[in-house]
Amino acid sequence: MSGVGGLVTSTAVILVLFILLVIVSRPFIY
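That's the Sporulation protein YjcZ sequence above. Prediction below.
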């Protein structure tokens, strides 16, 4: 169970980091 929870947690962290990267890089794109 802990393995599944760790996978979900790591996936959520990667998703948050990706969203932050998009928000930060957006002003440079436009």
